[in-house]
Amino acid sequence: MAGSILGRNASKGDLVLRKSGLSLLFIALASSALAAPCSDTGGNYENWKSVMAEEARSEGVGDRGIAALMGSSYSKATISADRNQKSFKYSLDKFLQVRGADTIVSQGRSRKKKNASFYAGLEAQYGVPAGVLLAIHGMETGFGGFMGDTNVVSAIATLTYDCRRSDYFRPHLIGALKLVDRGSISAASIGAKHGELGHTQFLPGNALAYGVDGNGDGKVDLNNVTDALASTANFLRQKGWQPGKGYQEGEPNFAVIKQWNAATVYQQAIALMGARIDG
Questions:
Q1: pLDDT score, position 156
Q2: Where does the record place the Transglycosylase SLT domain (predicted)?
Q3: How many Cβ atoms are within 10 Å of 219's Cβ, its own excluded?
C-alpha cells in the first residue's frame, strides 16, 4: 500500500536501513519495558525483584547476591523511617541536645585517651583526626551500642524499589548484593533502617568502595570497630580530606564532612563535637 511505512518505491538499501531502525526501536522499547519500575506501595515488590535481579546480574552480581535479593522482603519499617527523619529539621542546639552531644564528647575523649596510639595511627595513615572519627562513631551508633535491627538487603532493596529516592539507593543495592557475593555480609545481615552497616553506618555501596581491613585479618568487617574506623578514615581521605587542615565551617575539610551526611545540622554537629573531643 502507498501508505506503508516502507513505501512501494523504496530501494533495497532503504529497506535495510529502515528495518535496522525498526529493530533498534523494538530493542529500545523492550529494554525500557524491562527496567525495574519504582512504586510508592509494596504491592508489586515481588514482581519488581525478578526484574531487578536481571539488572543486577547484568552488572556483575553473582548467584549468592541474586539469591539474597530474591529472598528479601518489603520493609514497611524502612519506609516509615525514611518518611520521618524529624531530627534533621531541628536547630543546631536542639539537635545537639537530642543526640546527646555532651555524652558523645565525654565518651569520645575517654576513648581517645585509652587508645591514643590507635587513633594516632589512623591520623598518621589517613590524615583524619580522632575527634572527627569519634564524633561520627558516637553519633551513628553510640560507639557501637546499637547498630540496627533491620535486614540490610531488604532495607536497601525497599528504598531502591520506592520511588522517592530510587536512583540514589540503587548503587547501594548493587553494592549490598556484591558484598553478599564476597562474603562480607550475608542475606541475613542486620543494619539500620536505611541498610547502613556497622559501627559508623556505611551504606553498602560505600562499604564496597571504601571499606578496608583495619585489623589485618584478611577481611573487611564493619561490625569490627577497627575495620569500621579505618574505613571511615579512608572514606574521608578519599573524598578529599586534607591532612592538617581545619574542619569547621568555612575551613577546607568541612566540605568533606558533607560527603558523609547531607544534613547541614549533622555536619555542624560533627565538626563541633570533633573539635571538643580533640580539645
A1: 98
A2: 46-247
A3: 13
pLDDT class of 36 with cuts at 50, 70, 90: confident
Helices (H), 35-115: 45-58, 63-70, 76-83, 92-98, 101-114
Rounded (5°) CA angle 139-102-121? 60
- β-bridge partners, 39: 162
3-state secondary structure of 39: strand
Amino acid (one-letter) located at 86 = K
Buried b (16+ CB within 10 A) or exposed e, 8-24: eeeeeeeeeeeeeeeee
Place of cell 563541633: 272
User: Is the pLDDT confidence value at 105 over 90?
Assistant: yes
Mean pLDDT, rounded, for 4-23? 41
Q: What domains are defined for the chain?
A: 85-149+198-278 (1.10.530.10)
